[in-house]
């Protein structure tokens, strides 16, 4: 009454080994995620550098670029020159965004036990929080 199954089941091919797409390890995935967060933080830092020239921001940008390059296997991040960045009327918003991005990077750095990046992102969180304090107090 029923015909026997002649071909492989769809479920068995899905459950078996598939080599048509690359698999990454957890560490590789975390490296990619961390590099992305740091690159975003670097972009916001460059925007801030265009508005408020500061040697601390210059140093932070260089350190962030160094870590992104390391995590990407030697591929340097694309950066907008400070002179080409459009000035934003709200540097406080940029500091808040940078603080948030640094926090995200810190979580990933902690999960992959990357001490250098964890220290760098914690320092950046502190710096952006400190930059916001006088503005936040003046707003209230």
Could you walk me through the main structural features you see in this protein, from its secondary elements to its overall organization?
The chain has helices at 10-15, 26-51, 55-71, 91-111, 115-139. The mean pLDDT is 85. The protein is mainly alpha-helical. The relative contact order is 0.13. Helix 2 runs antiparallel to helix 3 (55-71) and helix 2 packs antiparallel against helix 4 (91-111).
Helix content: 55-70%
Largest sheet composition: none
Mean pLDDT: 85
Overall SS class: mainly alpha
Shape by Cα distribution: elongated
Please trace the helix and strand order, writing H or E for each element.
Answer: HHHHH
Whole-Å distance between the termini?
A: 81 Å
Strand content: under 5%
